[in-house]
Amino acid sequence: MPTHRTPAEQQNADRLIEVLQTRLSALNDLHLTLKHVHWNVVGPNFIGVHEMIDPQVETVRRFADVIAERIATLGGSPSGTPTAIERDRTWDDYSLGRDTVDAHLAALDLVYDGVIASHRTAIDLASETDPVSEDLLIGQTGELEQFQWFLRAHLESPRGAVPHASETTETGAASAAR
């Protein structure tokens, strides 16, 4: 988007900045949630999941940085504070503490569902106003979907079914997976 904008272009930029801010908060929340899981996962397959989560944490942190820098590039002021995370959150805080691999992975699967769906909504908005932001979000969404696949592969039956498929809450998903 050009630096000197018409009122309509400025309105589009402001809306995009707002949407990117929600993505920044979601990514900050996700990387903290992933680290929380890393610290609290127990049971068989613990070490594999423990080691799988850290690269996701680092990648999601990098995604947040890229989004923040895009907000600044568009003329906004990115907010990475805990207050921003809480203000922008449209879901309940992650509620599992120390729990099994399967419980955490099922709950995280639902977390990824929400983050990916919101990223896709942001892609739709960006496609109308800013192809650079659209491309950035598309790339991130592809990697987030791959991370979700990693989680689901631990839980899936050979036919692709997951025990928590009908659940809509993290605690419900965790209970179904235990």
Automatic annotation (TrEMBL):
Superkingdom, taxonomy of origin: Bacteria
Residues annotated as domain Ferritin/DPS: 18-156
GO MF annotation terms: DNA binding; ferric iron binding; oxidoreductase activity, acting on metal ions
Pfam family, one: Ferritin
Keyword entries, A-Z: DNA-binding
Protein family: Belongs to the Dps family.
Protein name (record): Starvation-inducible DNA-binding protein
Organism ancestry: Bacteria, Bacillati, Actinomycetota, Actinomycetes, Mycobacteriales
